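call fold(seq) -> tokens
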Amino acid sequence: MNAFVRYTVMGIYKLFYNFKIEGWENVPEKEGVIIACNHRSYADPVVITMPMKRPVTYMAKEELFKNKLFGAFIRFLGAFPVKRGAGDMKVIDDCVEILESGRNVVIFPEGTRSKENKVGRGKTGVALIAARSGADVLPMGIVFEGEKLHFRSKLTLKIGKLIKSEELDIGDGDTKNLKKVKSVIMDAITELVEGPKTEENSAESTE
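ret:
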């Protein structure tokens, strides 16, 4: 999304919602990073795209492309269609290829939208993509009250600090290491959405 379109869309969102972005300083100049974020609404891909200076690509179910106008719009934003029931490894291979070409890839590790500001456990796909691509991970969190966005909803995009590939300590990429990598990424997203972990929350997460 070029600067003119980015700021135009941002202006529209600020008029329609009580919208703000936190953590501008964490947006990387480099290309080919994984943007990992919680998933709250259909507006999420547009919201995530706004602060990014480099091209962004994300997966969208192929049904969304049936409407030619909407399909053209989300393609413009960087979406590519994914067929439901297609092999997971094909999607992962596509993401790795996109990252290696220098584009950023948006991933919603939870795999589905949540109805409140709570982050689920997430799936290991994000860790596998990180392992196979060697890409850094930029955590983001989308926060708003209630199940759905409404006119003048308070909507915040929080951008976390870039997690370097070497910090993830992926190792040989076996299942145990992938779960650890996934936990690091999900913890970063959770802190943005829910706030820092308390001792009570930490105890609950180990049960």
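Residues 202-207 have pLDDT under 50 and may be disordered.
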